[in-house]
Amino acid sequence: MKILLTGGAGYIGSHTAIELLTSGYEVVIVDNLRNSKASVVDRISEISGQAPSFYELDVADYAALDTVFKQQQPDAVIHFAGLKAVGESVADPLLYYQLNLLTSISLCRAMADNNVTSLVFSSSATVYGEPERIPLDENCNATKATNPYGRTKIIIEQMLRDLCDAKPEFNVVLLRYFNPAGAHPSARLGEDPKGVPNNLVPFLTQVAVGLRDELVINGDDYPTEDGTCVRDYIHVQDLARGHVAAIRKLQSNCRLVTYNLGTGTGHSVNEVVAAFELATHQHLPRTIGPRREGDVPTSYTDPSLAERELGWKAELTIEDICRDAWRWQAENPAGYP
Ligand code: NAD
Ligand code: UFG
């Protein structure tokens, strides 16, 4: 089976490409390298021992994408391509609506025109906004995102529901990721954020390697056990396996189904820092800063639906995440070449 990955040179896409290749799938990557580097594709080949096909193009360029579909005739698509920075989406909402929506529309058109009707979409726990209950399950209201980035995910999810209603031949798996973190255990693939990292784990690794002076903890007066926010950190390797499970699910003619991908366990910022210090045998300089706007105190999932219906369960721990994120950062202090 051949799987086309939009955004397959990115953080989650590259780890998924390896998992697919080593599970016997052929992989075609379409990426404009807006937030990634061509050397990622070489590393995917190096680790998996197999070369994916690679096209450097913008998914919003329908004509170019249509040519790839005609040349490659994939059996299914995983749609990772998109912008993902919450703060940037607040500052430049039109960029987010334009890029995330137009790429998704262009992709769905190319799929329909080429009779490719199996799709996995990268959604996000951000669609739940302020959680109505904890743990979050797939029946929670998923239209409450509090920023433009999250609202693009809600709109794309709705567009895919409408598409499946109109075209019963389509099968779609919506995957709502919780907090992806960690790196490939080889230390050859990992997260390579441009500029100052927004997310906790890459910020921690950059402090540990000396690129940043200290971690600022965004508030310690939340209604949680130690006052810092609680999140469901999922190892990117577990997430990659989740995509392979989703591809298998598509073959059962599932129509449109939605799964939360997380571990089911929440960890506070203080707990993550402590786990990271253990993994690195380093003390991490940190201070307490003000709350970050838009942060909810606690977010973690009930992962049981994915376990029942996909036969998938996260296996790696916060300690594994910290160890692998640190090895990646230590061996690639400046990211990808
Ligand atoms: P990433 O930025 O590392 O990967 C996205 C890739 O898409 C990049 O390689 C980028 O160059 C490419 N891309 C962007 N626009 C493109 C376009 N128009 N045409 C072709 N390629 C394009 O991000 P990631 O962390 O791997 O995230 C993948 C997906 O998962 C995104 O849709 C993101 O919204 C979603 N997601 C990520 C997180 C997270 O915390 N990382 C959480 C929830 C959901
Ligand atoms: N944090 C700090 N200091 C930092 C960075 C983060 O204290 O330097 C805190 C945050 O305030 C938050 C926690 O660490 O309390 C986790 O923050 P992240 O930015 O790592 O993760 P979020 O839960 O805020 O958001 C992430 C993605 C979103 C996605 C969401 C749900 O960035 O895109 O998970 O999937 F929508």
Q: Helices and strands in order, then pairings?
A:
Layout: E1 2-6, H1 11-22, E2 26-30, H2 39-48, E3 53-55, H3 62-72, E4 76-79, H4 86-91, H5 93-113, E5 118-124, H6 148-166, E6 171-177, E7 179-181, H7 200-208, E8 215-218, E9 230-231, E10 233-235, H8 236-250, E11 256-261, E12 267-268, H9 269-280, E13 286-289, H10 304-310, H11 318-331
Parallel strand pairs: 1-2, 1-4, 2-3, 4-5, 5-6, 6-11, 7-10, 8-13
Antiparallel strand pairs: 9-12
Bound molecules: nicotinamide-adenine-dinucleotide and uridine-5'-diphosphate-4-deoxy-4-fluoro-alpha-D-galactose.
Description of the structure:
It is a single chain. This protein is α/β, with parallel strands linked by helices and 337 residues long. The chain has a domain at 2-179 and 234-262: Rossmann fold, CATH 3.40.50. The chain contains eleven helices and 13 strands. The strands form four sheets. The protein has a seven-stranded parallel sheet with strand order 3-2-1-4-5-6-11, with helices on both faces. Strand 5 (118-124), helix 6 (148-166) and strand 6 (171-177) form a beta-alpha-beta unit. Helix 1 (11-22) runs parallel beside helix 2 and helix 7 runs parallel beside helix 9 (269-280). It starts with a strand and ends in a 6-residue tail after the last helix. Bound molecules: nicotinamide-adenine-dinucleotide and uridine-5'-diphosphate-4-deoxy-4-fluoro-alpha-D-galactose (UFG).
